[in-house]
């Protein structure tokens, strides 16, 4: 686990800093101690140099912007090139206290963004009482800039602009506070590949230790809340946020973290990733934008043989469900799907098998007998429809088979239900999606349905 935002170089840690760092070294993968002005950033670098697991950022907090100007450009560049510096910041806009004039905040913020472009470093963004202004700034100045919204406090306009720009979203201890239900609600809109956690220690201790001085290892409490809200395990959130932090801050990934996953576990379910090919180009899809999903690299460069999956599954009976769901469409490798499913059922008849599919299996395989062939092997289908009519489907899902896709999809759903499979149709609640019509569509087909939150990976208009 990584605490992506702490201030362990602050005076609050002067008495026991070595002890705190030792605890971090024992329990965490890394800590980033974040600078707030140039002198403070020097102290952050000194502390980072004292431990292999502590890194630093260099930046000017909006509160301190009054003391700096564009004349300080070269001073920041020089500090930022220290070996343990992994980011610029924290920087941004703070119109709550207005300790610096707004004009100077904008000037110093923009200067640091330009340095980030020059040095190819990510930025750590602070914003308070300036969500709209920050959203507008990101739209204008963040083309090609990597970074994170630190201690996100729940503003939807800022969330959308940040995700459109490819930024990460970091949740601090405030997400654990009982009254912050609306902030916790925003978690479901953040793609798993953009999620981070932090402490902002010594401030904002999470609920179980609220009132105490915060410290980096307390980031685990935030992870627990995130896991509970997203229906994930603590282990899942640990993996997801650790990999994301390493990707953003260019920290070394382990061999396991880099590995392209043929199978991957989430909670007590095992997922099988057969291929990266898919006949659809859904407007909301992450394919081509993100390779990492739920902390796993799923973008396969080759198509492994079925035996490679069998070897990795090992004992199918230990999982509550096995799901064919990966980067692409499982029916693109129908024979492999069938062979792996046969193997699973041979060793564990009671382990349910589900296929998550776009429902175009008939067109992909050019075989309308596939459902009959899968009887006794597959227990259920989760079919991603994302529309309630042909026109909407072609516009949003954009299948390569064109006009005939919709009728084939509907036939697949009806046939699967008639043959006794458990069938659920799903949709993403993208901009303009007609929830009522989709629910009506599912009821008319007599199948279950699920509507998933829309997670932004890029501008919807694009």
Brief synopsis:
This protein is α/β, with parallel strands linked by helices and about 450 residues long. Helix content is about 35%, strand content about 15%.
Describe the model:
The chain is an alpha/beta fold and 462 residues long. The chain is built from 17 helices and 17 strands. The protein has an 8-stranded parallel β-sheet. Helix 11 packs parallel to helix 12. The chain is elongated, with a radius of gyration of 24 Å.
Give the tags.
2 domains; TatD-like; metal-binding; elongated; 462 residues; Aldolase_TIM; DNA nuclease activity; DNase_TatD-rel_CS; TIM Barrel; 17 helices; 8-stranded parallel sheet; alpha/beta
Distance between the termini: 34 Å
Strand content: 15-25%
On the 0 to 100 scale, the average pLDDT is 97
Query: How many beta-strand segments?
Result: 17
If you compute it from the alpha carbons, what radius of gyration comes out, rounded to the nearest whole angstrom?
A: 24 Å
Uncertain ranges:
none
The backbone outline, from C-alpha atoms, is: elongated
* Computed structural class: alpha/beta
How many strands, which pairing sense, and closed or not: the largest β-sheet? 8 strands, parallel
What is the CATH fold-level name of the largest domain? TIM Barrel
- Please give the CATH architecture of the largest domain: Alpha-Beta Barrel
Into which percent range does the helicity of residues fall?
A: 25-40%
Task: Please state how the strands of the largest beta sheet are arranged side by side.
Answer: 1-2-3-4-5-6-7-8
CATH level-four homologous superfamily name of the largest domain = Metal-dependent hydrolases
The figure for the number of domains is: 2
Number of helices: 17
Name of the CATH class of the largest domain: Alpha Beta
GO molecular function, one term: hydrolase activity, acting on ester bonds
Keywords: Hydrolase, Iron, Iron-sulfur, Metal-binding, S-adenosyl-L-methionine
GO cellular component, one term: cytosol
Cofactor: [4Fe-4S] cluster
